[in-house]
User: Which sequence fits this backbone?
């Protein structure tokens, strides 16, 4: 049984299915029926890609794997059972011989007044769809507003967190709102929409090589993004944010990208953890429970290339850990020998929208169109499906104006920032458009 279908869970399920060839029952428990290719989610929010392009069907791409739709709320390690709740609120339980925990991560919250009430998270498809509607709506309302102060507040967007997600959201977002403003008669002759990117770190993308950081910083500033390092939010309000510098920024949009924390299910299991991540050995096995494995963001995997440290919470590690985990699960059943997880990173890539990107494949620093080509090529190779559709959307975006309309599919109350796993299945049918 595999709990979670993120990068680690999806890869584990696919690898186990190929190894088992029908000789074992493989059950995948996940709240929704798709694998979400998270790195391209900012492009969904900015109207570059359609939502289904980055949503890969689990039943359509994992033959030999039985999908159970549900949110796991409890694991009985003694009885070898997991308890879950399905999208219609019904409770159920499933027994297992081997358990793979790949529950991933959720929004990282900080004790800042007003954030829970007024910020928008960015961890799943519902949040991306909501943000696209919200940004479009703010531009439209600003175009119809007579009050210059209201117009300025509605066209000001504050992103907190200058890591991968925040940097890409700001980079794509500013291009999106510029395009919307050009199409809006009420904003065509006014000031450009304003984007702020905040972080307590001293530079953009602090976890990456300084050359990549400088490239991203330059691209953002050239596009007019107000990049403020060593700055964060002191208080969030319905009409803006108070910064720790004392400045108040009038805005209707606070986008929270400060990082992630392991899924709360990990803490509820009563097993040893490291900064909220489940402790495992180099074989991705939970000590004292030979039948339980864990990998991805939920697991503190020893980094054998850096003794004493743990692998970072990245999709690159999660995907490769899932494959090794599948191998070791099979080995625990007598097929092969266990293998320790060891991985040297192949470089990192940040899509900055348009033809801009920052990348260091095999640690060779690249920027501009060449970095963009490498980045997009990597994403197409890493995606387990929908490659042609993604490529077609990129081509159409290059030659056609974006279609910016509010679909009203996701309401604000359906994507709380402190929700462990926001699900589209929980969203009521759109009787009216709200967000």
Assistant:
């Amino acid at each position: 049984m595999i709990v979670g279908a993120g990068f680690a869970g999806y890869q584990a399920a696919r690898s186990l299915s190929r190894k088992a060839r029908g000789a074992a029952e493989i059950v995948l428990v996940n709240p929704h029926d798709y694998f979400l290719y998270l790195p391209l989610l900012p492009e969904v929010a900015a109207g570059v890609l359609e939502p289904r392009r980055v949503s890969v069907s689990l039943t359509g791409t994992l033959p030999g794997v039985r999908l159970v739709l549900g949110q796991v709320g409890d694991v009985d390690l003694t009885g070898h059972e997991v308890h879950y709740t399905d999208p219609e609120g019904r409770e159920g339980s499933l027994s297992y011989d081997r358990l793979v925990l790949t529950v991933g991560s959720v929004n990282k919250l900080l004790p800042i007044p007003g954030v829970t009430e007024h910020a928008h998270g960015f961890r799943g498809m519902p949040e991306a769809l909501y943000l696209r509607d919200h940004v479009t709506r703010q531009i439209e309302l600003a175009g119809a507003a007579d009050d210059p102060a209201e117009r300025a507040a509605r066209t000001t967007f504050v992103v907190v967190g200058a890591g991968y997600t925040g940097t890409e959201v700001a980079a794509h977002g500013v291009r999106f709102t510029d395009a919307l403003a050009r199409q809006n008669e009420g904003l065509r002759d006014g000031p450009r929409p304003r984007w702020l990117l905040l972080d307590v770190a001293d530079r953009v993308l602090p976890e990456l090589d300084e050359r990549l950081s400088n490239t991203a910083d330059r691209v953002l500033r050239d596009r007019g993004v107000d990049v403020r390092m060593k700055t964060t939010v002191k208080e969030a309000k319905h009409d803006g944010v108070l910064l720790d510098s004392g400045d108040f920024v009038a805005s209707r949009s606070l986008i929270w990208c400060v990082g992630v924390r392991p899924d709360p299910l990990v803490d509820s299991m009563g097993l040893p953890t490291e900064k909220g991540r489940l402790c495992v050995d180099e074989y991705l096995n939970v000590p004292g429970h030979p039948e339980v494995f864990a990998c991805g963001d939920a697991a503190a995997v020893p980094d054998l290339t850096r003794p004493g440290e743990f692998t970072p919470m990245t999709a690159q590690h999660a995907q490769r850990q899932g494959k090794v985990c599948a191998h070791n699960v099979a080995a625990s059943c007598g097929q092969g020998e266990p293998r320790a997880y060891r991985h040297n990173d192949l470089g990192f890539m940040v899509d900055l929208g348009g033809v801009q990107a920052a990348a260091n494949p095999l640690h060779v620093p690249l920027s501009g169109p060449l970095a963009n080509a490498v980045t997009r090529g990597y994403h197409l190779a890493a995606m387990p499906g929908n490659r042609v559709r993604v490529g077609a959307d990129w081509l159409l975006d290059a030659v056609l104006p974006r279609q910016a309309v509010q679909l009203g599919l996701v309401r604000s109350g359906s994507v709380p920032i402190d929700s462990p796993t926001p699900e589209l299945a929980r969203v009521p049918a759109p009787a009216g458009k709200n967000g």
